[in-house]
Amino acid sequence: MAYSPQARRDRIKPHFPKLVEMTAEYVYADVWERPELSKRDRSLVTIAALTALGWSDQLEGHIGRGLANGLTREEVSEVITHLALYSGWPSAMTAAHVATDVFDADDKAKG
Q1: Residue (of 9, 29, 7, 6) closest to 19 by Cα position
Q2: How far apart (Å, rounded) are the C-alpha atoms in residues 107 and 1?
Q3: Are 48 and 86 within 8 A, CB to CB?
Q4: Are 64 and 108 in contact (CB under 8 A)?
Q5: What is the distance, to the nearest Å, from the Cα of residue 22 to the centroid of all Cα atoms in its chain?
Q6: Which burial class, exposed, middle or buried, applies to 43 when counting CB atoms under 10 A from its CB (0-12, 13-18, 19+)?
Q7: CA angle 101-103-108, nearest 5°?
Q8: Whole-model pTM?
Q9: Burial of 51 from C-beta contacts in 10 A (0-12 / 13-18 / 19+)
């Protein structure tokens, strides 16, 4: 996949070192490792939240992470479609475009 969350964090690290450190140590090394939810389930919840909030920059990376964590494209599509009724049509349409970009990049990476 062309999108690299690590590359995006590396880009901001010189200016926001503490924020990058907190992301690595708290978000991913702590919260994402808690056993009460699987990483797959955390991905599903995160994609739903980012869709509802309309945060497309973060959504791109989390859709990729979700696929790596075992979500199917159909599940990503369904959660975005479901949220059209709860978070609004524009947020779902934005998320659908982001997801399609991720799917296309994944297809190209696989050849």
Answers
A1: 9
A2: 8
A3: no
A4: no
A5: 18
A6: buried
A7: 95
A8: 0.89
A9: buried
Residues 6+ apart with CB under 8 A from 5: 61, 64, 65
pLDDT tens, the chain, 111 aa long: 455 677 888 999 999 999 999 999 999 999 999 999 999 999 999 999 999 999 998 999 999 999 999 999 999 999 999 999 999 999 999 999 999 999 999 999 988
Q: Residue 33: what residue type?
A: E
Structure tokens at 99: 């997801």
Burial class (CB in 10 A: 0-12, 13-18, 19+), 74: exposed
- Percentages helix, strand, coil for the chain (3-state, rounded to 5) are 75, 0, 25
106 with 3: CB under 8 angstroms? Answer: no
pLDDT at residue 63 in the model: 97
Structural domains present in the chain: 5-110 (1.20.1290.10)
